[in-house]
Amino acid sequence: MFNKSIIVLAAGAGTRMKSDTPKVLHKISGKPMLYYSIKEALKLSDDITVVLFHQASRVQEQMEKYFSNINFVIQDHANYPGTGGAVMGITPKYEEVLVLNGDMPLIQAEELKKFDLDATIVMSVLELESADGYGRVIIENGNVKKIVEQKDASVQELAITTANAGIYQFETKFLLENLPKLNNNNAQKEYYITDLIEMAISQGKVLKPLVVNEENFKGVNSKVELADAEVIHQNRIKKEFLKAGVIMRLPDTIYIEEGVEIQGESIIENGVSLLGNSKIINSHIKTNSVVEDSIVIDSDIGPMARIRPLSELNKTHIGNFVETKKAILNGVKAGHLSYLGDCSIDEGTNIGCGTITCNYDGVNKHQTIIGKNVFVGSDTQFVAPVNIEDDVLIGAGSCVTGDVKKGELYLTRAKAKTIDGYFYKHFSSKKK
Fold first, then answer.
1. Is the model's pTM score more than 0.85?
2. Candidates 3.40.190.10, 3.40.50.410, 3.90.550.10, 3.40.50.720; correct CATH number of 5-211?
3. 143-148 and 136-140 as β-strands: parallel, antiparallel, unpaired?
4. CB 80 within 8 Å of CB 183
């Protein structure tokens, strides 16, 4: 199945990001940038090596949350800095090795398959309207003849609009033989992988250019570029769901993270955020609602509702300004202005406006269990742990502090009393 090894370069600090977070850990659609490079690489190879240096342990720890079948190496940055130094000391498993960058989150496996050309080196190039700021690639008779940096280019070379996209596939034998020949005789005192191009040309090797899509090979070096890349990635995600039959109202206003699943005939309205590994099945998520790491099946949510992690909603109506957290709701109606956390509520139950499950005692979380066909009056507080059995009526304004048996009415309101003329007495006393 696999015929190439892949090296992913992820050692840089990314100073232009102006952040303490390593560049490759900055997120796009809920996942670190490096996640996407590895994800696509694994579609092509079972021999993936990620090169780390800056905050290496932090980066490795984050990636191991998602992947268990990749290798990590630490670049000897003190002695061999630069992109060439990054690939030293690695012995690829296969006869071809593809070198990727960890800051290219828009890369796709289908594009990477195109590197399978008969050549010692296949290098990615961009055909641009203006190549200003890029190294130029000189191509003659379909082969790469030279790479020239902009600062070193002649007037004729500056007119060339073919630029280096920064991804390479090498014959492993050539790479291992020539890496020891690299030197750092340059202004930056670094070992450059691009010097291998010059070596291959001088040795009469075949170097093939591969024209690639700029969008897929877009590098991220700043917060501006991060935001631009996320827009592209979001559009990809939403396009796939639209093609699968999901209805989206004003899709440009919707945010969907990598890992979300939407199935069946679902409707996602404007301003909705679907986060984490949420799963939406045959459901209607209304305007400005948030669903995070939760499952919603045959239900309608919102508008302006918040479904927090580990909630499971089935055949349930959640109205405006209702918040759930770790809530298992089956056939429930909660129309508005309620908080339902650490609870299990069964079918036919109606949750009145302003209901709160008081799940936290300052030390531990406790569960509220509510059975079938329970009517909960407005402004009710359940002080967990409590167990409300089936067919129970909770009077409005109650504070439930203990279990309630099947068929009971529970209420804690004091008997009302009136004092005739008290309004006038109260305010007249204030004027004196």
1. yes
2. 3.90.550.10
3. antiparallel
4. no
Compute the distance between CA of residue 78 and CA of residue 11 in angstroms, rounded to an integer: 12
Residue 347 identity (one-letter amino acid): E
Do 223-410 and 5-211 fall under one CATH topology?
A: no
Are 218 and 229 in contact by the 8 Å Cβ rule? The answer is: yes
Which one from 54, 284, 317, 336 is the annotated catalytic residue?
336
Structure tokens at 353: 């406006």
Domain ranges of the chain: 5-211, 223-410
**Can you tell me the distance from the alpha carbon of 137 to that of 143, in angstroms, rounded to the nearest whole number?**
10
User: Measured at the alpha carbon of residue 162, what is the angle toward residues 158 and 163, in degrees to the nearest 5?
Assistant: 90
* pLDDT tens by residue, the chain, 432 residues: 688 999 999 998 888 899 999 999 999 999 999 999 999 999 999 999 999 999 999 999 999 999 999 999 999 999 999 999 999 999 999 999 999 999 999 999 999 999 999 999 999 999 988 888 778 898 888 889 888 877 778 888 888 889 888 899 999 999 999 999 999 988 888 999 989 998 999 999 999 999 999 899 988 999 999 999 999 999 999 999 999 999 999 999 999 999 999 999 999 999 999 999 999 999 999 999 999 999 999 999 999 999 999 999 999 999 999 999 999 999 999 999 999 999 999 999 999 999 999 999 999 999 999 999 999 999 999 999 999 999 999 999 999 999 999 999 999 988 889 999 998 988 886 665
The answer to whether 54 is a known catalytic residue is no
Residue 365 has what DSSP assignment? B
The domain made up of 223-410 has a fold known as UDP N-Acetylglucosamine Acyltransferase; domain 1 (2.160.10)
Beta-bridged to residue 248, according to DSSP, are 268
